[in-house]
Design a protein that fits this description.
The chain is an alpha/beta fold. The chain contains five helices and seven strands; from the N terminus they run H-E-E-E-H-E-H-E-H-E-E-H.
């Protein structure tokens, strides 16, 4: 017995349902990724110790050591910036890092992500090196352990090696005074409750 026009239409309609569901999910995923402020992505690591790692220095970058998780637990608050020479937003934010590193109360280290050593050296040689240490994460394994979504990202780690703050995306003019320095102060106060400590800010 041949199919009736009504049964054919019903089958076609049924076949379209999974396609429609998939399309709707794709739209929702797109909106989640590209709408809103990416710097507001939360981090489960905020309030937790930095993961264990040991990064070598960038090959050929004279006088600039690599660093480990133990180097971030020596009593001084540290700003950790994740960057790469191939990252255009990293180039845009770099002058702000140079400005930040000029402060006496800032210790800034760099995590060089999936970069060729010669390109990393050229980047810092051209734009200036604000980092007291630069660890080379050629495979990206350490960045994954840190929960990095993409470069650049900036973390603030207190003197006990606890991640206190995370900023996703490039720093922009105004972020130093309005975001980074207040978070830095809170991390410093967390080590010295008698200095008027305030609660640690939520991760950006």
């Amino acid at each position: 017995m041949s199919d009736t026009p009504q049964s054919v239409t019903s089958r076609r309609f049924g076949a379209l349902i999974p396609v429609s569901i998939f399309a709707a999910l794709a739209v929702l995923l797109y909106l989640a990724l590209f709408w809103g402020d990416p710097s507001e992505v939360p981090s489960a690591l905020v309030g937790q110790p930095v993961p264990e790692f040991a990064l070598p220095p960038v090959e050929g970058l004279a006088g600039v050591p690599g660093f480990t998780n133990e180097d971030l637990a020596t009593g001084a608050v540290t700003i950790v910036n994740v960057w790469a020479s191939w990252c255009v937003p990293c180039r845009t934010e770099h002058p702000l890092l140079v400005q930040l590193a000029a402060r006496d109360d800032v210790r800034l280290v760099g995590l060089n992500y999936k970069d060729a050593p010669e390109n990393a050296r050229r980047f810092l040689g051209t734009l200036g090196n604000p980092f007291v240490a630069v660890g080379s994460d050629r495979t990206g394994r350490t960045a994954i352990d840190w929960g990095v979504y993409g470069v650049p990202e900036t973390f603030i780690v207190d003197g006990a090696g606890i991640i206190r703050f995370k900023h996703v995306g490039p720093l922009e003019p105004g972020d130093i005074e309005n975001v980074i320095l207040p978070a830095l102060k809170m991390a410093q106060n967390s080590q010295n409750p008698g200095a008027g400590a305030t609660p640690t800010p939520a991760a950006n």
